[in-house]
Design goal:
By secondary structure, the chain is of the alpha+beta class. It has 2 domains: 116 residues, Rossmann fold (3-Layer(aba) Sandwich), CATH 3.40.50; 161 residues, Sandwich (Tumour Suppressor Smad4), CATH 2.60.200. Strands 5, 6, 7, 8, 9, 12, 13, 14 and 15 form a 9-stranded antiparallel beta sheet that branches. A 4-stranded parallel beta sheet has the order 2-1-3-4, with helices on both faces. Helix 6 packs across helix 7. The longest helix has 19 residues. It starts with a strand and ends with a strand.
């Protein structure tokens, strides 16, 4: 009989995973799996459990938010590539950005069916100073909202938690002196309020990037830098660029693709990876690990 490891975060998204358990496990059983169920016990637990046991299973499915997914991926990537089972994902967090990338359905039963029997697809994974990320690494404005917003607030307000806490700080935002060089020879330097290296069509449940510009398995990141605005005109240029997804001629928003980017700054930059704190760095290389993870996708 096929073996499936099901790892879920009981605290994610208003404890949604708990309410999904019966439907999810029923589908797994109907699809012919013998199931091992493991709730996470705290930060880092999913990584450890998957690293220790995943090689003995035909499939690993995780249920929780993007943080739980990130931990599960970390466990899988600690294994030799030939020992990594296909990963299934059942989103149960606050914004669930990554689920939009792999065309997951909405109903619990359909999510479970895709997780244990969806189309397997090899995708890229990012590496930030030795820590993996699936869809985004970022610094600056709003990037600490996900991990600094209390869990209760995230659960009650959902998507609005990200918006409200961020908008409340617009009057006092920091800027960062940063230099970026890429493997393609690009060099950008200046003061920025935001920077991201991503492989996603959705950020914070709000920003939707064009799917035809984002490919999950091409070995390339999509990167964006927003310069520090000095005037109301600068702000308008930035907002227009983000709304129309067209880079402005004045250079207030810089966009590029790369497989590797090197960031340096005089003062430590706080980075987030997949919505969680990723560390402070003055010298950092972000690299694309092409097609190292196989994940079950919707149609």
């Amino acid at each position: 009989m096929k073996q499936l490891l099901f790892v879920y975060n009981p605290k994610a998204g208003r404890q949604r995973a708990k309410t999904m358990l019966s439907d999810v496990l029923t589908v797994f059983a109907q699809e012919g799996y013998q199931i091992t169920v493991r709730p996470t016990l705290g930060p880092g637990d999913a990584t450890q459990v998957v690293a220790d046991t995943a090689a003995h299973y035909d499939r690993v499915v995780c249920c929780g938010g993007d943080g739980t997914l990130n931990e599960t991926v970390g466990g899988l990537l600690s294994l030799p590539q030939e020992e990594r089972p296909v990963l299934g994902y059942i989103p149960a967090g606050t914004t669930n950005d990554f689920s939009r990338n792999i065309n997951l359905p909405r109903s619990t039963q359909e999510l479970a069916r895709v997780a244990c029997g969806g189309v397997p697809r090899s995708i890229d994974v990012g590496d930030l100073g030795g820590r993996q990320f699936l869809y985004i690494a970022a610094f600056g404005l709003f990037t600490d909202v996900s991990y600094s917003t209390p869990q209760a607030s995230k659960n009650l307000l959902g998507h609005l938690a990200y918006v409200l806490q961020g908008a409340g700080r617009l009057v006092n935002f920091p800027s960062y002196q940063v230099k970026v060089t890429t493997d393609q020879g690009l060099e950008v330097e200046g003061e920025f309020i935001y920077g991201m290296v991503s492989n996603t069509v959705s950020i914070g449940g709000m920003v939707n990037l064009p799917r035809d510009l984002v490919c999950l398995d091409d070995g390339q990141f999509e990167a964006l830098l927003i310069r520090t605005p000095k005037t109301a005109k600068d702000w308008q240029s930035i907002l227009t660029a983000l709304t129309t997804q067209k880079l402005p001629e004045d250079g207030s928003v810089v966009g590029f693709t790369c497989s590797q980017a090197h960031f340096t700054s005089p003062k430590p930059l706080a980075w987030t990876v997949d919505g969680e704190f990723g560390g402070d760095y003055t010298d950092l290389t972000i690299s694309n690990r092409s097609r190292v993870l196989t994940i079950a996708c919707g149609n």
